[in-house]
Amino acid sequence: MRCPYCEKEHNIFEKIEQTKMIFKGEEITFENHYYECEEKGIRFFGGKTGDQNLMRARDAYRKKMGLLTSSEIASIRNKYNLTQKDYSFIFGWGEVTVTRYESNSIQDVTYDELMRRSNEDPYFLLEMLEKNKSNFCDAKYSELRKKIEEKIDRPVLMENLFDRALEIEYSSIDENSIYCGYKKIEKRKIESIIKYIAENISFLTKTKLAKLLWYIDMYNFKKRNISMTGLAYIHMPYGAYPVGYEIIMLMPSMKIEEIENKNCTINRIITCESNLELGAEEIEIIDKVILDYGDMKTKEIVDYMHLEKAYVNTQKNELISYEFAKDIK
Ligand SMILES: [Zn+2]
Fold this sequence. Notes:
By secondary structure, this protein is of the alpha+beta class. The chain has helices spanning 49-65, 70-79, 84-90, 97-103, 109-120, 122-131, 138-149, 154-169, 187-200, 206-224, 245-250, 280-293, 298-306, 309-312, and strands spanning 14-23, 26-37, 42-44, 233-236, 239-242, 254-261, 264-272.
């Protein structure tokens, strides 16, 4: 290659050096790429190395400030198969905003958060699209909607559906009230408790599980003045019954088998899929409940419960207050 400095033909290699600089008031370290004429000891930039160095410096700054890098922004956008212009318009930004973020300018924190959320949550991106619908013609809008919806996977969709159903079921019960033990219902916690009980009791029926959950919540409330699951319970003929119990039993994580017995069907809980680890204090309470009631047959535990003050002092279909925790037999 002809060297622009010494005018001779010699090999020129690209060299890399970790370089410190102050960028927007912050000290950053980035990979500086350059060429060098070894004859004259002169460094120079050629082709696109200058621009690329600046890009690396900006990305080093972004990393330091916890912002998405240009390539991360591009990969979020590509995940949804969107053009820079469409991605910008979905957020209601200018036509070239995203193009600039992917090349030569650094995004604001608020813009960064929106892009980040859109990466984690396709529903959020759909909401944004809905909000800025007027930026697109009908055909374009449907096309974008389809592209985003493709990224919503079915298990997550189902999960959200059950979250929503429970939310609706609990909408009339204040999460700070004594009826749910001063706690917002925690579906994932319920799943892990059911899993734990099913692993420790050989024949767990739906009815029996309902009672065990109630005792777990009552024991927990008695000890810590808060429920474990956030479930509310109503007075039913077979004892305390969790509000939204049918929804919980239908969750995809629940593995239940139906056993035909004379003229009735028994629902036996095999397990519940869950990755959430229970804490030692929670396990202590659950173990106590299993010890106290685990061996009882469904009918025995129902009969036993009928004698609890919580049951005697409430009417059919009435919510059972956690106040009765102190009176548990
Ligand atoms: Zn040279």
